[in-house]
Specification:
Helix 1 packs antiparallel against helix 5, helix 5 packs across helix 9 and helix 7 crosses helix 9. This protein has nine helices and 17 strands. The chain folds into two domains: 229 residues, Aminopeptidase, CATH 3.40.630; 88 residues, Peptidase M42, domain 2 (Elongation Factor Tu (Ef-tu), domain 3). The longest helix has 17 residues. It is of the alpha+beta class.
Length: 342
């Protein structure tokens, strides 16, 4: 299964090669041209008809994770964060270190040994370490190097009411949807950008969008969903099972309301569940794309994901299928001459 392969692959910011190889293999039969740029973005073009706009569709390949920072004399690994992680979720999580995916566990001082103030305060990254079962620094150095990436060791699992548990749903869900979208033909020219380093500052999208210079852009994402216990309704951001979420505003972008409404209305007209994403903190590749050159009209359409940026994010497969339907409806609705810039 495509989504399983993508979420179980490891791809921290700047180290997306395993994910990139899967995507290149999947899209090759369905596009007319493929390039991989200097940063590692995949730029894949599917030609449409003359007179129709060039539509950039972006989904980022990277996931939040860790990087080896040092190794102490006991062979324990100290690490830094690569992307925005909640430190509270790190302790006791199984991880995979380096290209050879050495198994390890994130450890900390036992609760029995902690002082009262330590027990009452969430553990910081500097208090944690990775235990790979080595006996010494020399043992660890045979398997692990400074700068090695560290990914969460988390299997793709389907459970409950058509739900999925996996790491990296932000944004392998968007990558999988974009791959499926490329399997269909459209009048518009699609330039699919599978971007790198989104989680540390939208870096891949900045380079890709400048190169592509699109008439219009769509960003496919996994986004916040906090429709859970003890969270007030106004803070839910999105609701699981209510369909893909169309953004109006986030920390990096104020989206064109006419474009967001057009996509929303198309979904409703065709019986596809859809929702607006409540304006809130956070951002995505649209934050870089819409400011490129003289500016690009941009929409972000996302799959709601509970427990995002963790080893166990949860999404609805119904919302994921809805994302693909909504994007396809919009691409098919674009008329000749629309959005084209002189």
């Amino acid at each position: 299964m495509l989504l399983k392969r993508l979420t179980e692959a490891c791809g921290m910011p700047g180290g997306e090669s395993e994910v990139r190889e899967i995507i290149l293999e999947e899209i090759k039969p369905y596009v007319d041209d493929i390039k991989v740029d200097v940063l590692g973005n995949i730029i894949a073009t599917k030609n449409g008809k003359p007179g129709y706009p060039k539509v950039m569709i972006a989904a980022h390949m990277d996931e939040v994770g860790l990087m080896v920072k040092s190794i102490d004399e006991g062979g324990f690994i100290k690490f830094a964060q690569a992307g925005g992680l909640d430190e509270r979720i790190l302790v006791s999580k199984p991880v995979l270190v380096g290209k050879n995916k050495i198994q390890g566990v994130i450890g900390a001082k036992a609760i029995h040994l902690q002082e009262k103030d330590e027990r009452e305060t969430p553990l910081k990254t500097k208090q944690l370490y990775i235990d790979i079962g080595a006996k010494s620094k020399e043992d660890t150095e045979k398997l692990v190097k400074l700068g090695d990436y560290v990914a969460f060791d988390s299997d793709y699992v389907e459970f409950g009411n058509n739900l999925v548990k996996a790491k990296a749903l932000d944004d392998r869900a968007g990558c999988a949807a974009l791959i499926e979208i490329l399997k269909h033909d459209y009048n518009v020219t699609i330039v699919a950008a599978f971007t790198v380093q989104e989680e540390i500052g939208l870096r891949g999208a900045t380079v890709a969008a400048y190169n592509i210079n699109p008439d219009i852009a769509l960003v496919l994402e996994g986004t916040l969903c906090s429709d859970v216990s003890n969270v007030p309704e106004q803070s839910h951001i999105t609701r699981m099972g209510a369909g893909p979420a169309i953004s109006l505003m986030d920390s990096r972008t104020i989206f064109p309301k006419n474009l967001a409404k057009r996509i929303y209305d198309l979904a409703v007209k065709n019986g596809v569940k859809v929702q607006y994403r409540t304006p809130s903190p956070g951002g995505n590749d649209a934050g870089a794309i819409h400011t490129i050159r003289e500016g690009v009209p941009c929409a972000a359409i996302s799959v709601p994901c509970r427990y995002i940026h963790s080893p166990a994010s949860v999404m609805s497969k119904d919302d994921y299928e809805g994302l693909k339907k909504v994007v396809k409806l919009f691409l098919e609705d674009i008329k000749e001459g629309e959005y084209i810039r002189d």
